[in-house]
Amino acid sequence: MDRFCCLDREGGSPIDINIERIDKNGFTATEHQGREWSFISPSIVKGSLTIKESLNNTKGKLVQKPPRKHHHIFFCTPVSPGKSRFIGVGPRNFKLWMDPFVLRWMHHIVLNLVIDSDLCLVRVQEEKLMEVGLSNWQKACFVPGKADTMVVAFRKWLKKYAGGQINWGTKFIGTPPLILPREQLMDRYRSHVVHCSSCSGAYKGFNTLKISLQVLSVASLAIMATTKSIATRNTLAAASVFCFVGSKWLSHFIYKTFHFHDYNHAFK
């Protein structure tokens, strides 16, 4: 399926990508929007976007502001058939004032939505490739658009310099496990949270808050049963309900954020 670079689905246009070179060290690709991509063998993808700033009138003089740059660096290392370790970073030189106010786990919430959603699609594609054989990948993948240029280039590189597949030696049989249910495939807790200090810290903090609200809810009811003031009883009843509802909302938030969120960003 072709991908489109657009602000809306109706006004998009095809992405024009050109491969500059391809050799044993990888390949480089450029887009007309000012993006550059590099595949560095065996498992690094690096992208950069440069946005030139307009001239700025400062004290009667036209000053050229430095361009805004945003990089994407992805490390994707196969660890066994059907499993890879993914690490991504996105350094930039603009809007840095936001960083102290947006905690790392908040960034991960948004990024994991996209990664988890893509994971299901990639896993199905892998199953289709195994059915037709890795050397016949064109039969399982329809890649007619310019946006698919880098996919085709990687397959050519993999065939020429790696025999079309990963050499696992004698450690693994080159067949991935069966497709898992979405709840297991997108199990964010086991795949990410336990390995991330920021997300695991937030997970523990939210769980502590949830338990505290539950304790406060029960305590408010207990105190309400021993008091005779109607105003105090009403206040404690409201506090108990508030704490109970808050704990229920937190329980849903924790599960959806740190365990499983059935999300498909293609429909958003």
Question: Would you spell out the secondary-structure blueprint of this structure?
Answer:
Blueprint: E1 4-5, E2 13-14, E3 17-23, E4 26-31, E5 35-40, E6 44-51, E7 55-58, E8 61-64, E9 68-80, E10 83-89, H1 104-132, H2 149-162, H3 182-185, H4 188-191, H5 197-226, H6 230-258
Antiparallel strand pairs: 1-2, 3-4, 4-5, 5-6, 6-9, 7-8, 9-10
Helix pairs in contact: 5-6
How would you explain this protein's 3D organization?
- The longest helix has 30 residues, at 197-226.
- With 268 residues, the chain is an alpha+beta fold.
- The protein has helices spanning 104-132, 149-162, 182-185, 188-191, 197-226, 230-258; strands at 4-5, 13-14, 17-23, 26-31, 35-40, 44-51, 55-58, 61-64, 68-80, 83-89.
- The chain contains six helices and ten strands.
- It is 41% helix and 22% strand.
- Helix 5 packs antiparallel against helix 6.
- Strand 4 and strand 5 form a beta hairpin.
- The protein is extended.
- The model is unreliable at 1-7 (pLDDT under 50).
- The chain has a six-stranded antiparallel beta sheet, covered by helices on one side. The chain has a two-stranded antiparallel ribbon with strand order 1-2. Strands 7-8 form a two-stranded antiparallel ribbon.
